Structures are given as structure tokens and as C-alpha cells.
Fold this protein.
Amino acid sequence: MWDSVPDGPATAAASAAISAGAAAHAWVLLGPRGAGKMQVALAMAAALTCRELPGLGCGRCGVCLRIARRSYLDIHHIAPEGPIISVEVIRTIVIPEALRSPFEGGRKVFVIEEAERMNPQAQNALLKTLEEPPLDTVFILLCDQEDELLETVRSRCRALRLEAVAEGEVVAWLERRGAPPVEAAWAARLAGGDLDRAAGLGLDPEAGRRWRLFAGMGARLVSPVDALDAAAEVMTEASAASKARARAQKEEVEELAESLGDGRGTATLRSALARRHKRELRRAEEEVLIEALEALGSFYRDVLTARAGPGGSVANVDHAGAVEKWAASEVSSRALVEAMHRCADAPNALAKNANPTLTMEATLVALARLVPAAESPLPATAP
């Protein structure tokens, strides 16, 4: 599995420690968003769990493949729901699960995404488990903002610091994982060093199609009516992603039933799995909404880049014609900057459990009024 992540001192240190059998019981992966922390965490989880190549992870067995698609039962992913990871999540989900024996393998691994978004009460609740973890449990905390983690939490983890990944390295990494060269270059440029986003855009055709659709919406926002239509499209895409995730979850449940039957402890496992699935469905929909806002923001950024002169690099090459038309239009650069801010601020409302449909409608109507497209915009490239 280690050959599936970018090279670097942090990756080498984690690989060496785990392969030598000297893995820590708790790790914190530090670095900017998109530095590949999730990819490294998955490689670590595979190295800790793989039966075919212990300490390294073969990347080919059923365990490694299920870890890669985040469906292995003993790898628990904890992510923010709303603006924080609450103390209730730590007390009712993480700690009880950490005390149970592994269901399938010899170890349980907890991957806590955006660990800095645990509120202080949640971090303090986790402390005792970090101090005295079960021997079969490993914690991997992913953190973008180191200062937001309590020193007491940081001091109980082995820290690895990852750096942002250069665009050329992202392209090569995507190509090694099977992305066509053109798609790899497109995804790497849009990702801006964010390895997780690059993986989504370059390796998932459906995610790439959605991004192209969303990035082209800016050129269609002629009026509030157009904005409401576009918002409805975004919600339809989010619903479709949630339904696709639900289908994958059904397969996961069937796979569980086939492998474990109805033995002791399976009722508890099914209950825990149902709770996790519910959280995943909410997150699947929210991720598409945020994706739409980021894609729209990237369109306005491209217009500003085009205005800066020929030295600029337009990321959404599929919509280069619309970008050029907007760059030559009378829309002010100040309004374009404000539009980018609107796109960046809207996810905060979603994180506070605002109504998703109303949030998208309000945001797109505001964009239509702030930076209205020309009455006869160039047609957006078909996704």
C-alpha cells in the first residue's frame, strides 16, 4: 500500500516504524489540507491490518481493497458532523468501540479526520483512551491546524508532518493509479496541491463529471430563476450521490452477513454499522454541495486569472471560452472577488445544519445578482 502514496520523510518514517513492529498506539498526521494525510492514514491502516503482507500492506487482498474504499469493519472513520466533532461522538461512538475486540482482524484503527475540530471537551474525553489504549487499538488523527489540538493530545501521539504535494508529483501519482494523462493533468491543476481532491477528480469519473457541470453553472446564472434551476440541479446531484452511497452500503451489509453470519456480537456490529451508515449518507450529500460551491468559486477565480494576463493559468479548461468572455465583460473584479467569498462562506452555513436547499438557493440567487452572466452566455461544455 505504501507505493500508493507520495514519497516523503513522513511516509518513510511511518512505513519503517510499522514494518519494524514499532508502531505507536496513536499518531497525528500534520500538514496543510490536501497534503495526502488520508492516503497515508489508509496505507498505515492497511500495513497494520493486512494478513498477506503484515507491516506493509499488499494493496491487493480483500482487506487492503476494503480499507481503500473505507468499508473494512475494523477501520473506523470519524469525521465532523456540522462544525465540530462533539464530545457525544467521542463518548458514545469512539470510546465504547475502542474497548470492543476487533471483529475481523487483529487490530482496530480509528482515523479521526480534521481532528482539530474536536471541541475541547471531546479532546479531553479522548485523553484517557489515548493514554491507556487497548493493545489492539491504534488512533490516527489527521490535523490541518496543529495549534487547535490541545498540547495534552499532541503529546500522547507520535507526530508526522506532511508537506503540500507539487502539481507534477500529483500528476505522476494519479497516472500511477490509472488516471489518463489528460485527466491527471486537469485534476492536478484544479486540486491546487490537494491530493485527496485530485484523487476524487482524477480517479472517479462521476466526480469529474459533477465538477465540470458545477463549474459551468456560473455562466448560466442570468437571473434568479436560472439560479433556482441550478440549485435544483445541485440538490439532484447530491441526492444521487447519497443514493449511490446507500447502494454501496447495502452491498457492505450483505458482505458482512455472508462473512460473519449470526454469531455472537453481530447484532452489536450491525447496530454500529447502521449508525455509521447514517452518518456517511449525510456526509455524502454535504460533500457534493461543498463540491458545487468550490467548483463555482474556481470559475470566478479563473475569470480573475484570465484578466491578469497571458501568464495566468485557467484551471477549468473545459470552460475556457466562457472564462474569456467573462474576463472581457463589464463585471467588476471586486464583484468577482465577492462571488468567490460567497462560495467560500456558504459551507459554513451547511456546517451549522442550515437547510441545504435554502442555502444553495440563497447562494446562487445572490451570485446571479452580484455577477450576472451575459444574456447570451456561451454554452457550457457538456459534462
